[in-house]
Amino acid sequence: MTALGVAAAVASGERTARSVAEDYLERISEGDGGIGAFNLVLAEQALADADRVDAALGRGEPVGPLAGVPVALKDNLCTRGIPTTCSSRMLEGWRPPYSATVVDRLRAVGAVIVGKTNLDEFAMGSSTENSAFGPTRNPHDTSRVPGGSSGGSAAAVAAGFAALALGSDTGGSIRQPAALCGVVGMKPTYGRVSRYGLVAFASSLDQIGPFGATVADAAACYEAIAGHDPLDSTSIDQPPEPVGDALTDGVEGLRVGVVAELCGGGRQEAHRNGTNGSPASGVEGVAGDVLSRVQDAAGALEQAGAEVRTVSVPSAVLGLSAYYLIAPAEASSNLARYDGVRYGLRVDAANAAEMNVNTRTAGFGAEVKRRIMLGTYALSAGYYDAFYGKALRARTLMLQEFAAVYEDVDVLLCPTAPTTAFELGAKTSDPLLMYLNDVCTIPSNLTGHPAISVPFGSGDDGLPVGVQVMGPALSERLIFRVAAALERTAPGDGSTP
Amino acid sequence: MSGTPEREGTLADGWELVVGLEVHVELSTATKLFCGCANRFGDEPNTNVCPVCLGLPGSLPVVNAAAVDFAMRLGRALGCEVRPAVFARKNYFYPDMPKDYQISQYDQPTNTDGCLELPDGHVVGIERAHIEEDTGKTTHVGTGGRIHDADYALVDYNRAGVPLVEIVSRPDIRTAEQARTYVRELRAILLAIGVSDARMEEGSMRVDANVSVRPVGSNELRTRCEIKNLSSLRSLGRAIAFEADRHVDLWSGGERPRQETRHWDEAQGRTTPGRSKEDAEDYRYFQDPDLVPLAPSADQVAAIDAALPVLPAARRAGLLAAGVGAVSAEESALLVERDQDALVRAAVEVGADPGLTATRVCNDLAVDDWSKVTPDGLAALIGLETSGQITATQAKQVLAEMVEAGDDPAAIAERRGFQAMAGDDLAATVDQVIAGNPEEWQRFCSGDDAARKKLSGFFIGQVMRATRGQADGGAVNRLLRGRAELF
Question: Which of residues 298-337 of A touch B (CB under 8 A)?
Fold first, then answer.
């Protein structure tokens, strides 16, 4: 059942919130052993929350639009009194004294929080294999990864453990796992959703967004969490447009651009070896079956009355390099606070400086350490201009080029991830190969623009493929509408495993 | 080491002192810079804290508009240009810094290019005055109370996130005395505009001095040392004098100072080496992505300008114009600092002698509440004194009673039976005292200025004793000098 279906059933009295919660908790306890979507299942709290919804309904009180809907939270969202681990040893034993704004907002509209989901440590990764608690598996094929870093949330929705989930997206961490797990995942405009209570990875790129089994579900979840928050200085101080009522509007007359640079073919290895053809060409490594689905999607939109053309954003190919300087630079600073002094892990030593080193050595995994070192280097005296400074200039250039292309088209279309879900362990020994997963999603983080991944058919291996719809700043209403149109025309496939 | 730390203001022949000061000032806003916690000194440790100022994961800073307003007010009072500014992160690890980075301003500070004019007219340039957050406070507990031999450390985060402005002067200060005057003047401005209580002892005003020397006539800037741990104006002056001598000695001996941070050891009276430039931290500054740029509007700046009070320099100028400042720059500075300049000017306006009024108020009105002393009452008191109707000693007593009761000075003097001795009686008493101390009198007449000054004190004391304090000291002195045929 969809999240909106659950909400309607609960609101009408057809089902109690408690029975819904019990169903979902049961599915988790039966199925999550083989998936590993959850770090923590909040059975007691979920039932208590469900009872409160039922009691309110019993008294005839108005309940919110997500009343009784089971929601999973990525475990980098703070929950008051409940462990928030970021799937790191570093936050061992820490219980935040406050909840993230998005958590409060979801609960305020009646959502029932069922648990905290697994992620790549501190959201750094694309497969959820960089978790201190072990990997999450893809419900469509448990030998495959769910993508990442919000792999636990994507898998939870795909496996029916939660009707909705929240993730965070710094370079594609919502959209890529959504694509690999065959669900809808959306990254709002930077500043549209409060980051207060999201444990920071890269502050200028991080954005919280929804996962849903359908576009309408994701839209309802987005509407619940979007809006200004005085606790986040980067929060946009204007009311968000509704999106749910636009989903059936269709795409007649819309101008859709297929981004040439993000639809490049070729083998990923070619890119790594530096034999990536002419510099003007696009990113390499997008698999043929994925490209076919993107072409199918473009065709479907054209069929539905959109005007589809190929557009060029040359700087899009700079995204990956710029991202892997900017994100680690910010991370190196954001993660400095894990020093063993105030909370979380502490490995004692003779003095504070050694204790700090011992704690960080023991508490962080390899990928986190790699990025802290990368970012520290990029910001260092004498290297700032060549690395971090240059990356900022590339970011500015991308913003200008995307702004220019949105003069000619309303939305952009491209793959979400270069391939379908890959085998566990396939890329863990090669960080650069892993980083290439985000090549199509990173541009939206660098520009701050919204983007959504919607399932559209499957690859040669029968696994889900996601296509990505990107729009200019604050175009959530538009991209949800296009995504809904794609969903209506998508070939029947395994969007539920 | 040739210099004595006590000696200030003079440097070996041919050398010039070059000093720039970095002054950290805690702003006295009700709440901290990026959260709603109380900004209060002296509370129970770790009670004014929240997720934001503790840097808990997921927390975010939101800038306190009042702190920015205070900082801009300070900038304008220092004649700075107030500019659009961005917050940056200064990254380094220290247990009393919750996020292990400090939010500060780096290449785009709020205030730039101002100046501060010292009471003697010397102008010190202000390079910048930027906003940043304070750190927590670490107490090392154990054997020696010092970092390396402490058993453990306690951290109080009440101070973490308290708003600071760091005022960076240009290297325009040429003597230790000027450095102290600069800090005093800055403090006077801070108090006048009400943005800080500026107490060096409590740490709400912290001064670091960048010291170097150069040959007189040169414009070069030689290697400087940054001196920290200066907790009083006295330390500041002594440390600069010591450090300058050290530099002169090094250069004169064919060596050069190392660029380094040095700590002032008040007990030993010397600076000791700290971190050198080579092992200085790389702070990896970058714009803080959690905060948005500050963009003060022209209207905002105009409103700040309009609300600025008359600043100390202008108030001293006002005293000077009233004939008061001529007495002593020190006195006029003190009057402004104590907010008593208006009282003095008003008393002078109704006829009081400017010099005597300033002296009397400076010396004898150092009280917290002097609200009962009116300009008219003060002028009347000074009138009694200048006309010789009461003595200086009596005037002080009358003033003390005016502070308490606010009565008319003539009435107080009369009630107390105060009146100065008549001139003839006084002359007779002086002669008696001279006759009774012939040896001292001989030395008074033949000695140099210093001896005479010392002995005049002796004779005045004797006369006072003989008259039970009814004599006027000044009159006695005049009589003594007359008798010694010094006129």
Answer: 329-330, 332-333, 336-337
